[in-house]
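Self-study notes.
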Amino acid sequence: MKILIKNGQLITPFRIIKGGGILVENEKISQVLESQDEIRTVEAQDGVRVIDAKGNYISPGFIDIHTHGGGGHDFMDGTSEAFLGAAEMHAKHGTTSIVPTTLTCTNEELKQTIEAYEEAKSKNTKGAYFLGLHLEGPYFALSQAGGQDSRFIRNPQREEYETILSWSKDIVRWSIAPELDGAMELGRLLRDRGILPSIGHTEAEYDKVVEAFENGYTHVTHIYSGMQVVHRRNAYRYLGTVESAFLIDEMTVEMIADGCHLPPELLQLIYKIKGPSRIALITDSLRGAGMPEGESISGSLKNGQKVIIEDGVAKLLDRSAFAGSVATTDRLVRTVTKQAGIPLIDAVKMMTYTPAEIMSVSKRKGSLAAGKDADILIFDEDINVKMTMVMGRVVFQQD
């Protein structure tokens, strides 16, 4: 079947095409239509299903490269149902591709989660496409554990991480504190295997960040969260991970743009320094994403901790600190445009093309171009999603 999406404002990484359209065939974008004559010609063909965007935006599907779950599911539940349920919920909010993310845990629990992902891959027909797995931990600085379970934090051991990598060909990213003994060797190994090493939950200062970058660590996990900022030691100031990432122009970063973890002014600062080609918006969402306020669980149902969802974020029960995000990708774009004043084109780029580049999938995802996967959204001025298409298949459409 051919599907024509017409009468919309097409968002590209560089411009907005008013009154444009997209022709979809066999899971791919076959044509980007810029004129009414082109659209009428296609519409006159036999067997074309027409979707009217009604003047709303037509956008590439949102790509979330760091999420732990949503819709009442956490990937650490270790079931294929958890992966499928979270993927389906996020698709309703505009996410067409996700990188499911683990938490620091026992190796037995990690293996179960990986096996559940492998099972879910072949069943995923209603949700966001799985790009591969992101391992977050267990090789972190104990002092920057944050929401990670400190009982399982440790230094990299070659025999252990090679065993973990042998469990799956779908590991595409691993967040690690580079100052740990053995972390540089692991970074080189991951880089050589086409897996993205990312700096996270770390005490690394400038010299160590530079060394890490040279050894494959080209990305920073949830900037400002779980890492050092500039600090003083024996009267001298030292750059933390944040400032180091700012100084290295080629280094990419991701930010939790839920409006809670980072205030709008900080979102503006990161955007001003790194620019939209070096920033990915991420949800870092827990199972509470897309769920009502109240008690929830961070991590697996078996080993997770109780949290409270209120004010658009998960908090510890004593409300002394955030316990995680409950954002969806539409909310991220809404936050950076409406609160931080970032142009819509750049906001969408940070939610589509840039994360696709970071994960090395931009040849097939992340922009509206002929030959790319038909991952397409329709949303209005307030970033309310009207339709989500994944690989040419409409998985959500507002009545």
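Second protein, same conventions, sequence then structure:
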Amino acid sequence: MEALAPSGRQVELVHADSSVTITEVGGGLREYTIGGAPVLDGYDVATMASRGRGQLLLPWPNRIADGRYPFGGTTHQLPVNEVALGNASHGLTRWSAWELERLGPAAVRASFILRAQSGYPFTVGFAAEYRLADDGLTVTMTATNLGSQPAPVGMGAHPYLTTVGADGATVRADDVELTVPAATRLETDDRSIPTGARAVAGEPFDFRRPRLVGSLALDTCYTDLDRDPDGRARVRLGAPGGGSVTVWMDETWRYVQVFTGDTLGPQERRRSIAVEPLTCPANAFNSGDGLRVLEPAASVGGIWGIHPTRA
């Protein structure tokens, strides 16, 4: 009997000299290359996704303190899977088998129904449509309440991006020229739970103008995003003398988390930068910030994407 890949069935999208691999497990994004050069710091087919690599974060992104939240007159208790900090982290769909429907050589639709369960007694359908084209990868995500009662929902995604220098080598976080068009960041406690908001002006966390990351450690949620005329906010990572990669997001995504990987193992630390589109920040099930409450049969959707450029 042939062994199954930890991330399940793989669907490869191909357009020109770009390729993207989507996985059955979690409906996630495992690999993205252009001209053979990596756009993502992904993972091998023989290993499971680590630290959220390319995963979809549903029905909440980031963390819920103590895994506990009030909703509909009841206090709900989720499993605490970030044991060291005592949080429920990154949702409930990351390790489930999603349905993959190929829509063409460069498109696939991943879908999953999250059934009502202890801690989240709501039935919600999720879908992510991935399309690869001349302008890069576009991801359309939707959530639909399939149950008979209102349901709290947040959405997020967790790609780790790499940039390639003029010498063809990938560039570490320190040497990336970063642009984050955000006026505000969230402050957090020692459990990574937001405690308030702070303007970035005059701070090391201000990347409204492109500059090197340097030694700054980022695990930072930004908001008050400045948007281009098309309504999209764009976070750009540039390599000195090389190419760049931009993560863009429409108005659905009011927050973006930027993570330089300082808490990862020695081989992964500051090797890449995660840029995470979020509809709500950490602990939104308690704070209500950015949280969407879907009535029965109601949906919420948003589009984000990755646009790499070569030197």
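Instructor comment on the second fold: The longest strand covers residues 299-309.
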